[in-house]
Amino acid sequence: MALFTRKRATATATATATDAARTTAVLEADPALARLTGDYTIDPAHSRIGFTVRHAMVTNVRGAFGTHEGTLHLDGANPARSTASVDVTIASVDTGIADRDAHLRGSDFFDAEAFPLMTFRSTAAERVGDATYRVTGDLTIKDVTRPLTIDLEYQGAATDVYGAERVGFEGSAEILRSDWGLTWNAALETGGVMVSDKVKLTFDISAVKAAA
Asked: Which region, left, alpha or beta, applies to residue 181 given φ > 0 means left and ψ of -120 to 50 means alpha?
């Protein structure tokens, strides 16, 4: 009886692997995406790189970096060949409270004077669903470089009123800020800490295709 069970399990595993391979092949070779192939510049006026962090264990503080620039190379026929490069100006951090922003720019957190940029350089990309992608790369903060994986959803492509070809993506990732040396905190009398270690990063990207 166990012999037949093993045979059925082997057959099931083989079928699952075959189905997965077929799915991957379909996801990697969608001809409808080929027209997106090209080089793009991120439009900072219509993009947002933000973050959310838990404050005092009871609420969330949201902020964004107002100054950033970046480029994308999209390969619609073979997403694995796509790349991304982004530079973020730390001093542009904005949470809506001037004193808090000054604290974030200071040595307790980002030390923007000594480390003015946060950078991301992709090392791999893959299409994981009909409109979803996963980009992995190196995130550098305060001269500490660690891997980061961003899950992205393709929002579509359009030609704007000025004739520019645009693509849009929304994405997110979670990090532990302590992994990049951002360790400042304060204990609360009721237990817990002032600022959570976990930070959610969010990306709303509009990018313009370079002229052929």
From this structure: left
